[in-house]
Amino acid sequence: MNKDTILSVQNLTISFRTINGMVRAVRNISFDLKRGETVAIVGESGSGKSVSIKAIMGILAGNAVVDDGQILYEGKDLLKFSEKEYHKIRGSKIGLIFQDPLSALNPIMKIGKQITETLKLSHPNMTKKEARDRAIELMESVGIPDAENRFEQYPFQFSGGMRQRIVIAIALARDPEVLICDEPTTALDVTVQAKILDLINEIKRERNLSVIFITHDMGVVANIADRINVMYAGKIIEKGTSEEIFYEPAHPYTQALLAAMPDLETEETLVSIPGVPPNMIYPPKGDAFAARNKYALKIDFEQEPPFFKLSDTHYAATWTLHPNAPDIEMPEVLKNRINRMKEGRA
Length: 346
Description:
By secondary structure, the protein is of the alpha/beta class. It has two domains: 5-225, Rossmann fold, CATH 3.40.50; 230-342, no CATH class. The protein has twelve helices and twelve strands. The strands form two sheets. Strands 6-7-8-3-9-10-12-11 form an eight-stranded mixed sheet. A four-stranded antiparallel sheet has the order 2-1-4-5, with helices on one face. A hairpin with a 2-residue loop joins strand 4 and strand 5 (76-77). Helix 7 runs parallel beside helix 8. The chain is globular and about 70 Å long. It starts with a strand and ends with a helix.
């Protein structure tokens, strides 16, 4: 494990027991998180994004089975940790910002008490006044106005954006080194969403945090991620730097996600992705995206593609990159979008 790498997921495979059979939720994924960087995991609902980060946090459901793999944090495999050992790093070393701030907060407990209780987990000798002062500092640091008075308020008295700021303050209360953001802007309008993303970026720089950002929205990660992993049907199918994924998308699924994303200058008809993701009780043979891919080759339905190397940092698992594969035409809407991005207009 590289000394610059704080977290490394290696060959992680996770299934869930159901009455209908085993659901193959995560299939042999690997990625690294370096100190001070943001890695995004992007994909449709059901692609395995949230299951992966729940495994990192040690909060998988009781019917989950980790079939294979390692999750190395500072060289130690978290999958071998007992619940008591996990309790020492969950929150204090690896923090989590949930998707829905309203359900993440206790509706009948004042905001201030929720923050101070978190503080005391890491600082049991902290006095009541010290905890209150620190909680107010945290509230101010995430942009809560009039923090001293709002300390005494309940979650329902805050807007959605302000509740998300409170959840971020709670996640930061124990000074984690890694911050996992599980679709933290999904329930927010576009203006508030942008402010939360700016806040996460600012906190990352100030604290030198390492961030894993989970989302189904490619547009959200454009200005926040250093590197991007694109997931489909439980597998990472393309990975690269943010610039490589946005300017040189290679997998047809990545191209389809970007072609379906509008910007202010989009004039063409957006491209929708036909069909639905596969049933992961019965994972398809070959490339899981083949049935929805108009460029699919015969081999896509027979054999799973390996990763093809495009650069030292850019890889994609698609047979369309094989030397003998025919060239595919990138959607016009995507070509125009890429040109606008390069010109700084998207």
